[in-house]
Prior knowledge:
By secondary structure, this protein is α/β, with parallel strands linked by helices. It is built from 18 helices and 26 strands.
Amino acid sequence: MRCPSGLRSLSLCFLASAASASVLHPRDPVPQGFVAAPYYPTPYGGWADDWAESYDKAVKLVSQMTLAEKINLTAGPCVGNTGSVPRLGFPQLCLQDGPLGVRTTDNITAFPAGITTGATFNKDLIYERGVALGEEFKGKGANFYLGPCVGPLGRKPRGGRNWEGFGTDPVLQAISAAQTIKGVQDQGVIAALKHLIGNEQELYRMYNPFQQAYNDRALHELYLWPFAEGVKAGVGSIMASYNAVNGSASSQNSYILNGLLKDELGFQGLVMTDWLAQISGVASALAGLDMSMPGDTIGNNVPLFGYSNWMYELTRSVLNGSVPVDRLNDMATRVVATWYQLGQDKDYPPPNFSSNTADREGPLYPGALFSPVGVVNEYVNVQADHKVVAKQVAQEAITLLKNNGSFLPISTSAPLFVFGTDAQADPKGINSCTDKSCNRGLLGMGWGSGSANYPYIDDPISSFKRKAKNVTYYATDSFPSVPEPTGDDVAVVFITSDSGENTYTVEGNHGDRDESGLKAWHNGDELVQKAAAKYSNVVVVVHTVGPIIVEPWIDLPSVKAVLIAHLPGQEAGDSLTEIIYGEAAPSGHLPYSIPVSENDYPDSLNLVATPLSQTQDTYSEGLYIDYRYFNKHNIKPRFAFGHGLSYASFSFSNATITRVTELSEVPPARPAKPKSPVASLNTTIPSASEAYFPDGLDRIWRYLYPWLPNGEADAAYKAGAGGDKNYPYPEGYSDQQKEDAPPAGGPSGGNPALWDVAYTVQVTVTNTAEQGTTGGKAVAQAYVQFPADARVDTPVIQLRDFAKTRAALAPGQSETLVLSLARRDVSVWDVARQNWVVPKPDGRYKVWIGQASDDLPVVCYSDSLECETGVEGGPSV
Length: 877
Ligand code: BGC
């Protein structure tokens, strides 16, 4: 494999090379009680029924591979590539960012970001976006879609990459990720759910000679939850995070990879590192890593010089006996089985684009200094009609926070005065900043590897001008001098808040919003205030990565309406103006709360940084993030999680609850673990000759190869065959496969009983607005409240399911929505028993239903199986 191509990767390479000779400092001790318990060995893959056929085929293929061929699978035109085994017809695999579109290329769709997608609360639409993404990745010949992103979960409001995921709630993240994975993988593309786990801020995320990465019930009930759902949805791969967890780097953390992911969640696919996150060779192999991306090292060697912790080094480690052959067998089989599982053995196209250059011809091996040149870009157009789904997501996400006196929708004849540079596409060019590392013009996505090139932007100002005649635009963020307004004039003010990945600093923000905080950028608050002082009708449109503080202007009488349009991608224009002019009603809901003040969050959700030591983050708020925290402490946010108004008004009636599965306190015993076919592969250390460089190979400098010079292969073999293993195995290391552990475990998602539907709730939603008003889609959100006498500390309410009406409901129309709760949804993670436990199976669980976490007029009871509607006051918080 080759060193990464593309500017972003190069900047990382540069960072590391600056201090290439240093050795990582010994880690600072973690705070007491934070232990990364050893968990060995790596459970073989191949024990889930739905993966059985793929494993059988994979084992057959891997059994014919040499040592070097197997190794070549574990670490080039994309942001990462694996090696191939041409002799057996196994191709190089192309791994490509990112969550909202095929990165660093052309003729694609720039879809709305994850946060926008979450705000739709529309499961079918989220799946459709996944389908379109999958079609585009396949069309470009990318084998992997490096997404969706659910880590960060959004714990820290300033966190730089929260917008890549779906919102600050494990269930919203989980359902949205699962729908995306299914959509993408139904096209045959392997999704990579990322980043496992705890990548909750950008500062100090990564090991390098200057900075070390920052460092359980909350783990299971919040952060692992979406990964469990992704595994259940069949995700083919998982990307480990940059940060450490409990003192052990995520990509070599045996507790996380071997224990939680591969045993408890029964994950059958492959685990890759984040880019350049691998900091050890043997240790990461033993801890359950299967693929090093992009394969180079960071730390004590220089990236781009052909050094690797694996490839030829992994060959050496297998020959000298440090890494058991069965671990390599399992790695290779996991890669090949995933390829079969997604059907990529049947006519999958090779990559037809380059991440490195937009020219038709370019270096075939961009990481190499001297590379043969060939055609690298075929400019394949993969857009089809995906702009339709992209626009629908952008539109269904638009969240109406306030609409005084039903000010919106307005007529196209209203004289319109539009303020703010965000209303127009970047005048210097829609892709003029690499990876969107500037906030200039329309903010349609955040910055970093999660961005993509815009093919075009439908910007709001062009859309307004297409729809209305009387439009004046002031392309400035400082309030200009304007003619004296008349009573009918409407001012629309566009403001933003941006964030991204730590590889770039934008206006003082190092990825996270460490400089701007939750304040609107570019003096946005002042722009709104001044517009509100002049005009009596102001509509504020916010493009933002996450919560912003709206207090400076939200209560001003002339601020009539506020729309959060999130990060809309390329379809920012009509998706918005159709809402403003009433061609469609808003139906988005906040995927996070908007507090009155940033001080309303607990201190532990601040960004942490201790530059001269390993930064520690103790998650001391436990389960209490976002609305879970505000409810516990009776803090009224300005807008609660799930809030979102419509032009319609919806009522809920005819609620019923049905018990589907009788619950016991502890789930039924997990199924026995079948023997994995990986166990049938030969585990004898192969002969050194399997690792010799092939005769006559034309070597490319700086290319990573799995082979060793003959003398080195012979010496390694001699050490291994002589039993001279002097590798310092970690404490708790074992090479004996565990049987039927842990109790919460099971194939593809954990103990299957956790997924049994416990209750379903049905409710009818009716649009009660006056005839003639714009119809709209309604969302029902279901929150669980644990029994008061359950004697476990649980958040007052927790989102467990949601549903959106299929159609926009015209006045008088109704639709019945069905929501369900699985056993897991009424369980807590019992730290002592290390299992999911229903604290009081016969107790009174309340299932609250409504349109926002603070607007829940329906409650159903799990014990009496009765429901009440029209309940005032909601759950007592
Ligand atoms: C990011 C990943 C991304 C990878 C490849 C890393 O810096 O954290 O999310 O997939 O780069 O570009």
